[in-house]
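Residues pack. One example:


***
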Amino acid sequence: MSAVDTRPAPFRFLLSELSLIGRRRRNQAGLAVLAAVPIIIAIAVKVTNPGADEFSEGGPSFVSSITGNGLFVALATLALEIQLFLPIAVAAVAGDSIAGEANVGTLRYLLTVPVHRTRLLAVKYAGIVVGAFVATVTVAGTGLLAGLLLFGGGDVTLLSGTTVGLGEGMLRLLAICLYLTACLAALGAFGLFVSTLTEQPMGATISIVMFNMLSWILGVIPQLDWLHPYLLTHWWNSFGDLLRDPVAWDPLRNGLLSAAAYTAIFLSAAWARFGSRDVTS
């Protein structure tokens, strides 16, 4: 490597941010937990051979299909972890994004390099999105590997009853990962905004998790059905529509529009807050 790094400054900044996120022990431990869940599910199904979807209430669940094709280990685990574990992983990264820098006293240094505040927010948010994608792919990849090892592959029977090849099934799994990443990126935008409000990353992380859980709780109250389509998490379980033939695009489109709206609102709020914030640490 040459003595002078000729890569563009924003690219270097992003690589530095991703490296920082990846080196944190709590993030590494979080990925290990995310990866352990599909292995536990695969072993549990192998041992007990359940005939119904015991692992999930509400939303798509694929446990009863696991024994027929290992691909469904990844799908079942995503359906389970999207409700809590994946949002916690995103909350940990998002809550630490700005508040963590302020807490250890490096935020003021970053802004005197100089780094424009908008660029700093953009890089921090990009790190959150990459973290969400890595977390989702970790769950799906580990589940796929464990499932194929324990149950084998073969043709995949979709929710509509159509059979497709394993290759197409894996492409649909990748599309599901991208869809869930977009959904989690909206939660990450909220987390980035919360992180600009405090210098305590743990407090920010807890607030993000509580916001996520509140959305899930409100989403199961029948008397609030008028509110459900506007909740952050309402469309997350629509990823199952990618396993239909033809694909049911309307719920997926609504989910992406909802995620885009939440992302735009909270990124704007984060920019407005951080742009006028008096940084003292």
